[in-house]
Amino acid sequence: MERYFIKIRDKKVRVTEWGEKSHPVIFCLHGLGSTSLSFIEIAEALQHEYRIISIDAPGHGQTESFDSEQDYEMKAMVRWLKEVHQKLELGEFYFLSHSWGSFVALFYVDAFPNPVVGSILLDGGYQTKRLGNQTVEEEVAFYEKDFEESVESWDTFLDVAVFAPGARRSDSLKLAGEDLALKKDGKFYWHARGLTAAAIVRAMHKDETADLYHRLPSDLLLLRATQPVHMEVQRKKTSSIFEKETGAEVVEVAGTSHMMHWDRPQRIVQYIRNQWS
Q: Which of 128, 138, 166, 183 is deepest in the core (most CB within 10 A)?
């Protein structure tokens, strides 16, 4: 694993990379509140077959925040991401994304389809805000509060902020957890701040992926979570719309939560191999 920085618009962007430069490229984009190490176990399993490149998104990890809230809007994010790819000198690549990263990925595929030779969405991009049960301000208020809270110890941070109750843990995931912590005055905070989360939530409400569905390629693969069970009605509703309007394949991955690549990494790896080998 190699970690380094590039400069985009005079701001630092942290990149994490696995594998040989001669291998086909998988470019990874994490969800809201995560970092490039979100994909660590997937990358460790595939690094002898692919070159995996993952970034800390703006305002996450060690990538600097945007100056303007509007820069987090989808079309602006896509233009910024294109500059990242140009700086990294990427040609064709596979796009692996999670949660909010999948929302951005769909807008990217719509704007720049040629370099993307395949896309897998990990429980993201299909949860249209239009059919959600929260207003934009309700969701913004939740994330602003959640991302500004702190705990007193590292063990508590792991238990409360990084891992869901009963979730599997590993040394690699604990390393990824270290990326998520900001220590200040003896307390542990979430690394991404409330202002960043608020800007991203507003962007997802403003720019609806559902408006793109009819223009997207049908070779998309959406792997969707099945836990917790009480969310299944909404998941089935929105994923069915996604499947019908895009023509993409939707697969329910049994026994997985929203963090499916942490719950069942080997299963996700197998889907990737089956789709792209």
A: 128
